[in-house]
Amino acid sequence: MKQIVTTANGDINVLKVQEKPDPTPRDDEVVIRVRAAGLNFADILARQGLYPDGPPKPCVMGYEVSGVVEAAGKDVNSSFVGKSVVAMTPFGGQSEMIAVKATQMFEKPEKLTFEQAAAIPVNYLTAYALLVVMGSLHAGELILIHNAGGGVGLAALDIAKKIGAVTYGTASPSKHKFLTERGLDHPIDYRKQDWQPQLMQLTNGRGVDLIIDPIGGAHFKKSYNSLRHTGRLGMFGVSAGSANGLSGKLKMLKAAIQMPRFHPLGLFNKNRGVFGLNLGHMWHEPEKVALWMRDILRGVDEEWIRPHVDQAFSFEDVGKAHRRLEERKNIGKVVLIP
Ligand SMILES: NC(=O)c1ccc[n+]([C@@H]2O[C@H](COP(=O)([O-])OP(=O)(O)OC[C@H]3O[C@@H](n4cnc5c(N)ncnc54)[C@H](OP(=O)(O)O)[C@@H]3O)[C@@H](O)[C@H]2O)c1
After folding, report:
1. pTM of full prediction above 0.70
2. What is the distance between the alpha carbons of residues 157 and 264, in angstroms, rounded to a whole number?
């Protein structure tokens, strides 16, 4: 089978398609023939050598796949064989075939293509945990979604709309028309101007109830300062550090140094909450994640979960896929097709 191997830290030239032996399932696993694999920002950071959770190089990235079950281990119901599924994979998903624990697999909703299904797990589980589980977003509340046009951003917009929140979103201006059509109430251009004064003007100086922030570094402080009373800040990424080579290492170091510290007195005097999320540290809580996933898949049936695929690239074109995210051109999800 073919796999996309990140052979070393570096630019897109370190990405190679290589042949590997086909996997066989352990007792509690299934083997999936992959029809589409999700690409995530974490894969870019890993390639740049800036993702502490990434496996040692050479490695195969890929947190999610959709495909067809080809074989089942002896403890797994054999009726799964031949079914179309979507699954979460702790790395290795960017492969023609992958063995995964049966507990990490869900039936693919019929109304979704394989490409759309591969756009679900990471983006929607992250957004669900941020908005519903930890952010406790309520109808009528105001939410600011940073990178609203990205994979997680669009997922968060779907969920915020369903809840009935008022939505503010930062994004590159080329994405604003799409975002407005998709239901974003207030798109904010954060590339040419500072987003904070714009947000304050739009909210009559009050700020918002929930902000989800994947930018990191000093940006977390700025988001924190844009909360109204009982506001919450969800921190879940450090895209501020993304760059190739030494520049990336320096940017990541700067982001780490500039991370704010939150004092309990400040939090309770301002009635604010802060929390962090790392979906990649939830593998030991499969029951919890499965509950979230079932809600999300119900949302697919009810049509308020609308995974949007920006573009699908063949494995051979993985470099172009990485570049699309790095150049900020994607709207929603980029997927890879074996
Ligand atoms: N903690 C977790 O569990 C978790 C899970 C999933 C994702 N994340 C994080 O969430 C963020 C979004 O992830 P995603 O996979 O959905 O990717 P994505 O948002 O589709 O990523 C690409 C987009 O990010 C924006 N962006 C912001 N800063 C950037 C930079 N320095 N370089 C390139 N693009 C930048 C760009 O959009 P605009 O210019 O339009 O804003 C770009 O189009 C990432 O920081 C990722 O690490 C965290």
Report:
1. yes
2. 30
